[in-house]
Please model this.
Amino acid sequence: MKEKIVAIVLGAGEGKRMGSGIPKQYMIIKSRPLIYYALKAFEHSPVDEVILVTGEDEIDYCQKYIVDKYQFEKVSKIVAGGGERYESVYLGLKSIGDADYVLIHDGARPMLNADIIRKCIINVRRYKACVVGMPSKDTIKVVDNDTYAVSTPPRRKLWQVQTPQCFEFQMIYEAYQKLIDSGDTMATDDGMVLENYGDSTTQVKLIEGSYDNIKVTTPEDMRIAGSLMKARKLFRFLHNVHDKIIYFQMKILQKRFFTKR
Model:
């Protein structure tokens, strides 16, 4: 029986730090709404199905102006999220029914690409639980309530956690069910939920994503993401030009070889 891989794309946040009055997932970047880019990445990936979690009042809008407009055929459901991220993830998980693996991704990370998704699928099969991130470039300080430095953890042991965060479906669903039943409201990422409420024999593996895989939270992030997209487009163009040059060089050499013979 073929395994089933489902992606949950979270788009229910209000984006208060953006200061625009518009939910950040619908703000336009390079002529597309921000959430479009994550959905597009999963649409052209080995993922079988996508669950889009959004605000209850935004379901019809997402269906008409995002899913239908851009023909995202893998989006099987649009689900109303909760007030906090962990509630939205739980509601997304509940809507799946059955799956082998689930990839949970923040819709505000538009730089998701095929390579990161491929790594996620390979590693979740191997480790059962894996989270995308990157080693911290900066020294991190632990502070007290008055922002005085308390300690400085070794930088080599610190990672900046990103998404997708990937798990065997039943394992993360059961961990989230325990979280909800406990009344704990402090969970800020999915790996943390598994660490606190999952099977103690399963550890969360960190896998390298990309420093480009930023989360858009502020107006400055929108500008950075736009610049990264321009750079990615230019790189693809130069790569295609390079391939064509190599192709024509090979054709010329081939023609010369056969002419001499």
